[in-house]
Amino acid sequence: MLNDSLILGIETSCDETAAAIVRGGRQILSNVINSQVVVHKKFGGVVPEVASRKHIENIARVVEHAFRDASLEYGDIDAVAVTNRPGLVGALLVGVSFAKGLAYALDKPLLGVNHLQGHIYANFLEHPEVEFPLVCLVVSGGHTSLVYMREEGSFEIMGETRDDAAGEAFDKVARFLGLGYPGGPAVEGAARLGEEGIYHLPRVFLDKDDFEFSFSGLKTATMNLWNKLKRDGKQVEVHHLAAEFQAALVEVLVEKTISAARHKGVETVLLAGGVAANRALRARLEGRAREEGLLLYCPSPVLCTDNAAMIAACAHSDYTRRRWAPLTLNAHPGLSSL
Length: 338
Known about the structure:
Strand order of the largest sheet: 3-2-1-4-5
Shape: globular
CATH superfamily of the largest domain: ATPase, nucleotide binding domain
Helix content: 40-55%
CATH topology of the largest domain: Nucleotidyltransferase, domain 5
Number of domains: 2
Radius of gyration: 20 Å
Number of helices: 11
Number of strands: 10
Distance between the termini: 28 Å
Structural class: alpha/beta
């Protein structure tokens, strides 16, 4: 039956090689993630060519692992879903090529999935009670967006970042402050040892009556403050600066999200994406949602980062509507629409 479908999801948009099998768009039977963090850590960031080669080495083994964990054979699945946009083009092509070959060999439908939509659907894997309409904050290394969903499969972008995404700003500030990679957990760890308010950084775009974001200015302000204090011969406490940077970024994300929910008159707010694992962001958004009488849903940290279960879950809607992709499906690194 279509509503009890078994969908294999494949995710290779950046530096995680992932495969998962999900039943009916909600029940995770397996969720395998092979991370390349250790590989890229010595470079201080993801190297696209290296990521692509690692995907080629890992993808067959990861997919096989997903079937083994689910106690299923290849022929048991009903469809193959794969991230084909947005992301690193070489990395995407590895997943898309493998998925196309597997779908053809098994004579199963192929489904192309938008990576950001997948992040949103991570919430439905753990919270099937979520009701529409809703507003979702999607915040990751490459994207920061506010999305309105009137119903299943309906996506309206209310606002996006005009420059650096939140995760990108975390990475750049962490590198500048010598905190390590990946930047999000590194800054969060340093911030727990510091105190916000010791230094002052701007809350960029918080005074604007829209739903746009900009984190390049916050990143630059952090670096400029560090350099100024050094020039003045003052000792800079990196933990306090990390705490203030995180607080400034989180405040903008949270207040824009609450404002978007009010604007649309919704009662439900979702949080999604890699940066959604940040505990300061989750805590502040939870508090503000409670103050506003809103229902907030967040995935577990393992479903915040890139994974294939969210891809399979997102694909279920297209599968039930028979919106299947042709075998000419290609990879698209940019994001033209959600």
